[in-house]
Each structure stands twice: as C-alpha cells, then as structure tokens.
C-alpha cells in the first residue's frame, strides 16, 4: 500500500506581497488603525481616559473615542480630507508642534520635525486624536496620541 505525500505548505509572505496588498487596499479608501506607536506618556495615551474623578465621564470619553474610530473606518480617507475639522475632518500639524513623542524607539516611522500629523476632533470637539498616515501602507493610520485636555499642542 502506497503512502500519500502531503504537499509542502509555504506560509511565508514576502515584503513584496505585503506591499502589493497594501497598494490594493488604497483603492478601497479603507482606514486601518495601528496603536503600535501610541505614546507611552499616560497623559496622551489610553490611560489618560482614566483621568477624571467621575467614572461616568471616563465612559463618555471612551464612547466618543469608539464613535470616532467607527466613523473614520466607515467614512474613509477621502471623507476625512473633504470635511472641515469641525465636521469630523482632519487638520494637519507638524510633528514638532506636538508636546509628546510617538513610541518609536527604532525610528521605524521616520518622523521628522516637519512631518505632517493628522488631528481628528471627537466628542463634540472636546478631544483630539493625533496620528500619522503610514507611507509604507497608505491604509494604516498610526495613532500616536490622544489629547484629552487641550495640552498636546498649542490650540491658539
């Protein structure tokens, strides 16, 4: 009785294949979120949601944050560009204007002082989501920090 030979599976994905898949995703106006480079400064990361003395306020902020991410992923990049900053669109700031640093010890993002970061208002314009659109995969929005109290940059 003969043995069945199993086909060798190759589960490796090359960098080129990932690049091609990311280019494909650009055509679909999809926003994917990455928290990999979220600052480790508690005031500007998710721990900052726990800053109030009122548990209900913390829940309200988290709900607004969830709504912001949900809206962004539904609307897509084009909508963010076309809306003004008060309607859920984006505003651009230079990275040097931000009062915190992304958690990027290997400098993978290669953020220069003049690199443009995106600021998205949420929670009735009370809070700001600060991030960077990846150059390697245009579908990815790297969340760098969250401004809970208008201290992440000069609001003029």
Structure report:
- The chain is of the alpha+beta class and about 160 residues long.
- It has one domain (about 30-145).
- The protein is built from three helices and five strands, in the order αβααββββ.
- A five-stranded mixed beta sheet has the order 1-5-4-3-2.
- Strand 4 and strand 5 (about 140-145) form a beta hairpin.
- The model has no long low-confidence stretch (mean pLDDT about 85).
Question: Which tags fit this structure?
Answer:
156 residues; five-stranded mixed β-sheet
Describe this structure in a few short sentences.
25% of the residues lie in helices and 19% in strands.
Ordered list of secondary-structure elements with their pairings:
Layout: H1 15-26, E1 32-34, H2 55-75, H3 77-82, E2 90-94, E3 116-122, E4 127-133, E5 140-147
Parallel strand pairs: 1-5
Antiparallel strand pairs: 2-3, 3-4, 4-5
Question: What's the story with the biggest beta sheet?
Answer: 5 strands, mixed
Q: Bin the helical content.
A: 25-40%
Count of spatially separate domains: 1
Order of strands across the main sheet: 1-5-4-3-2
DSSP summary, beta strand count: 5
How are helices and strands ordered from N to C?
Answer: HEHHEEEE
- What is the terminal separation in angstroms? 82 Å
Low-pLDDT residue spans: none
Rounded to an integer, what's the Rg over CA atoms?
19 Å
Q: Characterize the overall form.
A: globular
Mean model confidence by pLDDT: 85
Structural class: alpha+beta
Discrete helix count? 3
The proportion of residues in beta strands is: 15-25%
